[in-house]
């Protein structure tokens, strides 16, 4: 079992899913957000997820999802990752309704942004710290942006957590050393263009993770 686990996010082709699974991703993410170049439909996700072995957790990345979308995607995944403005009450309700593990993404730019995390205790099972997008950005995540990882150095984490935002093969060792993360999430860093996953980058990244 590697010391550091990795979620490869924003997969939309059989090749990229295959590369993530073959090279040891612990989690694979599917984005349900029409404005995203990584957007997949529930039907596409079901086809992509069909052959994924049980030890690789499938994560549905959702932004303020309604109950209809949740009902469509939940049966085919293991985790729901909420990347919108979901309150703790909504996060808890989604957990109860789906019976799935729920992760809440927190957008971070300053230390003050971290104060949102404790409010999800008892509602989410994990916090995903991601970089805060610029005002007016089309996407709430998947922008390849980093936040100041030193903000997490002495933070008293209220829940299990993962580190996200602008991670790539060149900086992942520093990301892990600085923050103490044991689960990292990557999307743009293993792409050749927005939404286009590069199987060689996926393989190289997961190889690098395994050696940390
Ligand atoms: O990736 C997207 O397009 C996306 C769209 C809408 C909501 C969330 C999205 N991504 C969330 C993720 O989990 C990404 O992996 C995370 O933001 C890190 O992305 P990156 O900085 O590109 O590695």
What order do the helices and strands come in, and which of them pair?
Elements: E1 5-8, H1 14-22, E2 27-32, H2 42-49, E3 57-62, H3 67-73, E4 79-82, H4 88-98, E5 101-108, E6 126-131, E7 161-164, H5 172-179, E8 183-186, E9 191-193, E10 196-197, H6 199-210
Parallel strand pairs: 1-2, 1-8, 2-3, 3-4, 4-5, 5-6, 6-7, 7-8
Antiparallel strand pairs: 9-10
Helix pairs in contact: 1-6
Gist?
The protein is of the alpha/beta class. The chain is built from 6 helices and 10 strands; from the N terminus they run βαβαβαβαβββαβββα. The strands form 2 sheets. Strands 1-2-3-4-5-6-7-8 form an 8-stranded parallel beta barrel, surrounded by 5 helices.
Q: Could you explain how this protein is built, in words?
A:
Belongs to the TrpF family. There is one protein chain. The protein has 212 residues and is of the alpha/beta class. The chain has a single domain, classed as Aldolase class I (TIM Barrel). It has six helices and ten strands, in the order βαβαβαβαβββαβββα. Strands 1-2-3-4-5-6-7-8 form an eight-stranded parallel beta barrel, surrounded by five helices. Strands 9-10 form a two-stranded antiparallel sheet. α3 (67-73) links the parallel β3 (57-62) and β4. α1 packs parallel to α6 (199-210). The longest helix has 12 residues, at 199-210. The protein is globular. The N and C termini lie close together (12 Å). The chain binds the ligand O=C(O)c1ccccc1NCC(=O)[C@H](O)[C@H](O)COP(=O)(O)O. Residues 9-10, 29, 31, 33, 36, 38, 61, 63, 83, 130, 139-145, 164-167, 185-189 line the site of ligand LARABZUK.
